[in-house]
Design goal:
- One of its GO terms (molecular function) is protein C-terminal leucine carboxyl O-methyltransferase activity.
- It catalyses: [phosphatase 2A protein]-C-terminal L-leucine + S-adenosyl-L-methionine = [phosphatase 2A protein]-C-terminal L-leucine methyl ester + S-adenosyl-L-homocysteine.
- Pfam families: LCM.
- This protein is of the alpha/beta class.
- It has 13 helices and nine strands.
- The protein has a single domain, classed as 3-Layer(aba) Sandwich (Rossmann fold).
- It has a nine-stranded mixed beta sheet with strand order 3-4-5-2-1-6-7-9-8, sandwiched between helices.
- The model has no long low-confidence stretch (mean pLDDT 93).
- It binds S-adenosylmethionine.
């Protein structure tokens, strides 16, 4: 791999993310029947995260969930099945939550990519859990390859890659080349959603841009009207005083955030998509999502779950995280927009 030492610290962030989700579930911010099978048993005895972290996890999760269900609605209008590619998926449980829910049947492919160390661990967790395996298909349809670093099933695919490598090699080999049945894992002609949750900050802006552009080019060859959507969740604005404190905390753990550098304010975040010709790109901070996108009843419910001591700090933290989403329609008609 390219940066051996920092990589261990980057991979460690997956356990943090999974434990944060597990903690928010324990404290009843939301339900997730699958996360417990993806967090190592030993780690489950750790004390729950502080209320501030649980609230952040809740708001982020609600925001991304909402965008994902809207993407399903958009593709339903086109009467099409759709695909999701989760980049830097880590121990995320989203596939299982979708597969067990009303949109499960609409998924043509769900592809997760992460470092081989992470995909190996996840493949083992899947094999060990009857609950996780059952939603993948019949046991004979679930196979491992590449020395246990990849797992395949009819819809769900777990694939190893270092996404900083040139996507013309890494992504081509994984997603675009014809597989055993003669078709690539990723169809260029179905509506597709790219998820980048807390991952682009760990990559240089150049590497992220190359990755995003690879997908844009892959779908450009697609049928008229094909839709590519993207959701990015990340830290930003780290050069103000509070941002610097957050940055230093991470540096102390040897985690570098090259991907956060150019994103100094909320307006700059849309560039993640606009620089690749997306027709729609919007960004909201977690602070705004909490304030404007979550119902008063829900806010009331979660305010009763735990005592929050750091009330002033909450907004400061939440305004350094944002969800950015964009969509691109491949069309011969100029200025085709999608209402998302
Ligand atoms: N997306 C998951 C979530 O939101 O719960 C996991 C987020 S975790 C903070 C970041 C993940 O990105 C880790 O699993 C890490 O291994 C992965 N990652 C970071 N850089 C990567 C790279 N260059 N190639 C592949 N995976 C990477």
């Amino acid at each position: 791999s390219v940066y051996p030492d920092g990589d261990a610290a980057i991979r460690q962030t997956d356990s943090d993310a999974a434990l944060a989700r597990y903690s928010a579930v324990q404290k009843r911010y939301f339900t997730d029947p699958f996360i417990k099978y993806l967090v190592p048993r030993g780690a489950q005895y750790q004390p729950p995260r502080p209320p501030l972290i649980n609230i952040g996890t809740y708001v982020r999760s609600e925001g991304v969930d909402k965008l994902v269900s809207e993407f399903f609605e958009l593709s339903k209008q086109d009467q099409k099945q759709c695909q999701i590619v989760n980049l830097g998926a880590g121990s995320d449980s989203r596939f299982w939550r979708i597969a067990a829910g009303p949109n499960g049947g609409q998924l043509a492919a769900y592809i997760e990519i992460d470092f081989p160390e992470i995909t190996t661990k996840k493949a083992m967790a899947i094999r060990k859990s009857r609950e996780l395996s059952a939603l993948l298909g019949k046991p004979e349809d679930i196979t491992l390859s590449n020395g246990g670093t990849a797992l395949h099933s009819p819809v769900y695919q777990l694939l190893p890659a270092d996404m900083r490598l040139p996507p013309s090699e890494a992504m081509n080999a994984l997603l675009a080349l014809p597989g055993v049945d003669g078709r690539p894992l990723l169809s260029p002609s179905l509506p597709t959603l790219l998820l980048f949750e807390c991952v682009l900050v760990y990559m240089s802006p150049e590497a992220s841009a190359a990755l995003m552009q690879w997908f844009v080019d892959y779908f450009a060859a697609a049928e008229e009207g094909s839709v590519l959507g993207g959701v990015v969740y990340e830290m930003f604005g780290l050069n103000d005083p509070f941002g610097k404190v957050m940055l230093n905390n991470l540096k102390a753990r040897n985690v570098a955030l090259p991907g956060a550098e150019p994103y100094v304010d909320i307006k700059s975040l849309a560039q993640r998509f606009l620089q690749h010709g997306f027709s729609t790109a919007r960004a909201l901070t977690l602070r705004d999502i909490r304030q404007f996108c979550i119902s008063p009843e829900e806010l009331d419910r979660i305010s009763q779950l735990e005592m929050l001591d750091e009330v002033e700090e909450l907004d400061l933290v939440l305004e350094h995280y944002a969800i950015t989403w964009g969509a691109k329609i491949f069309s011969n008609v100029e200025e085709t927009r999608v209402d998302w």
